[in-house]
Amino acid sequence: MTSATASAPTHADARRRSRRIRPTTWAALGFAAPLIIYIVVFYVAPLAQNMSMSLHRFTRRTFVTGDAPFAGLDVYGEVLADPTFWNTLRQTLIFVVLSIVCQYSIGLALAVFFNQNFRLSGVLRGAFLVPWLLPPMISGTTWQWMMDADNGIINRIIGVFGIDPVWWLQADHSLWAVIIANIWLGIPFNLVILYSGLQNISTDLYEAAALDGCNAWQRFWRITFPLLRPVTMITLLLGFVYTLKTVDIIWIMTQGSGSSQTLATWAYAMAFGKGHSSTIRYSEASVVGTILMVIALAFAFVYLWAQRRDEEGR
Amino acid sequence: MESSRFSRTLAAGAAIVAAVSLAACGGTGGSAGVDDKVIEFWDPYPQYAEGSDWHEWVVDCAPEGYTIKRQGMPQNDVLNSLTTAVKADNAPDVAVLDNPFMPTAVDSGLVTDLATAGVDVDGFDENIEGPGIVDGVQYGLAFGSNALGLYYNPEVLDSAGVDPASITDWDSLNAAIGKVVDSGAKGITFSGITGEEGVFQFLPWFWGAGGDLSEPESQAAEDAQALVSGWIRNGWAPKSATTDNQSASWDLMLTGEYGFAENGSWQAAAAREHGFGMIPIPAKDGGVAPVATGGEFATLPYHKTANAEKTEAAASVITCLTSGENLARTNETIGYLAATKTARETQVRENGLWAPWVESVEGARGRTTDVGLEYETISATLSENLQAALNS
């Protein structure tokens, strides 16, 4: 900074091609510095550390001593060759896709419903936000209780209809159990964003459509849904990223046991020695973490591509 | 001109702010471990807050001129935090570690030789201290141990016509649980949760069937899996046993609906309040099954920049908690049975709770004593197979 203060800003135009950095550039760098430092310290450095851990073979000992041997892509190879990985990936995709599809469609239906602005709609809409406000620790535990195989309220209710009790948290069923809980958890988020998107659609359009004789179904599919497209895309992208990295609700309900293990809970279990094995596997966890980031990044690019195509089409 | 000067000033100002705030971050991080007169003490008992008996008891052990800063955190966090702290050279001066973690803590160089540091480690029971001794060097001192037993609810057993004294092996246990369930009550609660906690509860059945940790997939393991998973399949144990930890399964017992509960000596006081009795866990063909030693080890973590005087002070804190009359008091405060015969006798004399537990603690086995670091893999195998059996 001292050199910037010392350099006098004379004949700036004449110096355009000069090697000296112009004072305004220094100023620009100065303004950008806090952001750049922030990004480097809190984003780039941890990412680089994660990459580095996935390329070295870490154990608890080599983590402490700092002499973990370089393994190149060996750990990636091992993780990808592990049948657990592919099974977990499959479960993760089922978890993410089903969660998002249901969260979005239920959230959209509720948003359209509340957009009618009837009496008490504000209060009811507020009530739908409760899952969002509760700490996952509480909602997870509550779902665990409700899904208890012997005494859970869900089994009692379906028992009224003559359905046999379900062992919700059993290994083969636990994926469905956590999907149900996660859908419930994600509806408010979709509701809020889609509702605000609906508010931006001019009522004139609906009036015109009504004059043209469109029924409610046509109004939804011809006006609401297409105009909601940008909001839909960002909702789905955010929902995808949130759902992909979900650990808390799954961990609290099942510790990621059985079919409810996703890539995120698997990475968590390996990194901190939780789950079946208390052996920490920093390298494998970093590999799974990196793969998760690549998946999320790929989806973000799909979003950007779709958005650009949308703008060009306009 | 004016605007460019203004922007330069702003830029310089922003850079200074950024530099200062970064320096401030670094400053607080570094200075935390440097106070020579504060002994940092980590333990896995977050339930004892400041003002609790345990907290005061520990803090009172500060040697002349020192103060103790105690921090309680969840079991796994102590080891993981210790790992990063030793790496960053700001480890605590005393860390209390769960006993199955000892081999990995020693292997990673997280903890140091206690005797060299001046801790008096003589006269403690071998079966309890086993996990803390690696290659003949004692890296941790267990002040005591807890153990598992089979609690029963006398009211439920009476109305089912079951005499707890009749339970001497697995067959008579199954007969008793069957009778309890036939009487309309519920059978037994236990914790089959994924991970070490579920394995801890499984080991008495595994060892009771003649199992050996070096063979985690033996016939004994299958017999023990068949026993506990049979309880769930018969509806004698709740299905939630697959995800219940030990306190959740105890909560079920507290409903008063169950006849039996496999749980630890740390519940002895609560059990007395509710009028529950306790019998040792039976082995498959009769006799008492060995249980695993439970409880923690006091260790002196490794510091790259050693401070002999402070290490000596930290060692004297451990000695203070574990020597002479204090040992019984330490265990009494935390609800464990002491690791020496004399202190145990004092506890049994002064507290009627302990008499039925002495045999189990004296016959208990260390999980890692013989197999060392291998235990992590063995335990993972036992846990996976147990979960598979319980969920089938």
UniProtKB/TrEMBL annotation, chain A:
Q: Tell me how this protein sits in the membrane.
A: Multi-pass membrane protein
Q: Which residues form a coiled coil?
A: none
Kindly state which keywords UniProt assigns to this record, in alphabetical order.
Cell membrane, Membrane, Transmembrane, Transmembrane helix, Transport
UniProt superkingdom = Bacteria
Residues annotated as domain ABC transmembrane type-1: 89-303
Compartmental location: Cell membrane
Write down a Pfam family by its short name: BPD_transp_1
**Membrane-crossing residues?**
25-45, 93-114, 126-146, 175-195, 227-244, 285-306
Task: Tell me which family the UniProt entry assigns to this protein.
Answer: Belongs to the binding-protein-dependent transport system permease family.
What name has this protein been given in UniProt? Sugar ABC transporter permease
Organism of origin: Bifidobacterium phasiani
UniProtKB/TrEMBL annotation, chain B:
Q: Which InterPro entries match?
A: Bact_solute-bd_prot1, SBP
Any signal peptide, and if so, which residues?
1-23
| PROSITE patterns xref list | PROKAR_LIPOPROTEIN (PS51257)
Q: Which UniProt keywords apply?
A: Signal
Organism domain of life: Bacteria
For this protein, the record's PANTHER family field holds: ABC TRANSPORTER SUBSTRATE-BINDING PROTEIN, ARABINOSE-BINDING PROTEIN-RELATED
Q: What is this protein called?
A: Extracellular solute-binding protein
Source lineage? Bacteria, Bacillati, Actinomycetota, Actinomycetes, Bifidobacteriales
